[in-house]
Amino acid sequence: MGLDSEKIDKIESLLDKWCENGGYRDSTVNMPMLSAKLRIPRPELSCYFENYLKSSFRIWLSDIRFKEAQRMLLEECRYSNDTISTECGFSSHAHLYKIFKAKTGYTPGKWRDSVRKKR
């Protein structure tokens, strides 16, 4: 199944708005929920992720949460890792740690310290 450019633009726009409104913060969100929320048929949404983003929904969502956690770690020093994990939609602070270790080789706090030293 392919998507025409109009459908791709619509999906991109809806996903951007969903992210801007903090939809990724819901730790229970999954593909069926997002499909229903955006009123995009699930096969079309799956096609968009697979063929146009070259990713899966879960990886895409994890990347968005990870980027927001990075931003918060650098800009919101007063927040604990528990608060950051909740605000970014991770199911637990342990999951936040796991993602950071996998992507950076560091825990969230060590990553923040290493980035600050480079500045």
UniProtKB/TrEMBL annotation:
SMART domains: HTH_ARAC
Keyword Transcription regulation set for record: yes
MF-aspect GO terms: DNA-binding transcription factor activity; sequence-specific DNA binding
InterPro entries, per the entry: Homeodomain-like_sf, HTH_AraC
Keywords: DNA-binding, Transcription, Transcription regulation
Gene3D superfamilies linked to this entry: Homeodomain-like
Database matches in Pfam families: HTH_18
Domain HTH araC/xylS-type: 9-114
Listed name of the protein: AraC family transcriptional regulator
Organism for this UniProt entry: Segatella copri
